[in-house]
Specification:
10 helices, binds flavin-adenine dinucleotide, alpha+beta, Enolase-like, domain 1, five-stranded antiparallel β-sheet
Length: about 280
């Protein structure tokens, strides 16, 4: 194995287009290192981002939160203003692994890894985040809900790094996230859901129920049209256009879809109670 350690972004991007082959970017290593014992790494080259200056910033302005590519979950938990402005990001950060993982794992790594169960992606997606990708040729910004193209597949080209994530600031009247795992902490999601409501309407995203974290656009459209529900089954019928859960070692498709629709139904029902207006 060879580890390349650039100390600036220009050098990091240049190393991605070297004729020797594309190195694998590594940030916190909390996803990559899990697979190390099972892989033959003799010929692998890693691009270590830990020394690249300027990637660890977390900048909250009047308009947006900018999360640098080396920003960890813990950085956000400790940034009181950012955590207050985006409570679902703070909640998701605390749900990822334990403190050891939260202090190493990055938001960008959570996106780039492309897991269908990613908790950080779930929260960022309902806040309308976009991914800033940079190569030696160009910088482009892709909405997070257009970033994934399939299981562990994305629009990121091998010569690009995620350099930042941009989360626009909006006035929210509803923000909610729920994660169901085998236990309350240190568990990968069996099913997760997040919802927001702003002047732009409803946003609903779910994890572990599709090949990648996805928006539930049919449900969003129904909510934006003012639809209400009288049973979890009605929610589930709508969700069938948005999600395609599978059975795997963590759960069954039936459990995932049933729990997802019940979580949403009962949370929405709370809003109809006199004190629960949005
Ligand atoms: C014990 C344990 C518990 C966990 N629990 C959870 C959990 O509850 N919820 C959850 O969502 N995740 C969980 N994870 C997964 C992991 O911690 C997160 O996905 C984390 O955000 C990954 O970030 P990282 O910086 O460690 O990524 P790395 O492991 O460094 O990289 C992950 C992937 O992203 C790529 N990459 C990283 N940075 C960039 C970049 N800037 N540009 C382009 N590509 C990049 C790498 O090449 C690699 O493919 C857990 C992991 C462990 C080991």
């Amino acid at each position: 194995m060879k580890v390349l350690q650039p100390d600036n972004l220009a050098e990091a991007l240049r190393l991605l287009v070297e004729p020797d082959g594309t190195p694998v970017p590594i940030a916190g290593g909390t996803d990559l290192c899990v697979h190390w014992p099972a892989r033959d790494l003799d010929n692998t080259r890693f691009l270590d981002l830990s020394r690249v200056a300027g990637l660890s910033r977390l900048t909250l302005t009047h308009n947006a939160l900018e999360i640098g590519a080396r920003t960890t979950y813990w950085d956000l938990i400790c940034a009181a203003d950012a955590a207050k402005a985006f409570p679902l990001l703070a909640q998701a950060a605390r749900l990822v692994g334990a403190i050891q993982i939260q202090t190493r794992g990055t938001w960008a790594g959570n996106i780039a890894n492309g897991s269908p169960a990613a908790d950080g992606v779930l929260a960022m997606m309902v806040y309308g985040a976009s991914v800033v990708l940079q190569s030696v040729r160009e910088t482009r910004e892709v909405p997070l809900d257009e970033f994934f193209t399939g299981y562990k597949q994305s629009v990121r080209r091998p010569d690009e790094l995620i350099v930042a994530i941009r989360v626009p600031r909006r006035a929210y009247t509803f923000e909610w996230l729920a994660k169901v795992g085998a236990r309350r902490a240190q568990a990968i999601s069996k099913v997760g859901v997040a919802m927001t409501r702003s002047e732009n309407g409803w946003r609903v995203a779910a994890n572990s129920v599709a090949p990648h974290v996805c928006r539930c656009r049919t449900l969003e459209a129904a909510l934006n049209a003012g639809r209400t529900f009288t049973s979890p089954q009605e929610v589930r019928s709508l969700l069938s256009a948005d999600v395609a859960a599978i059975t795997d070692l963590r759960s069954t498709a039936e459990y995932r879809e049933r729990v997802l629709s019940r979580l949403i139904f009962y949370r929405l029902a709370e809003l109809d109670k006199p004190s629960g207006h949005v």
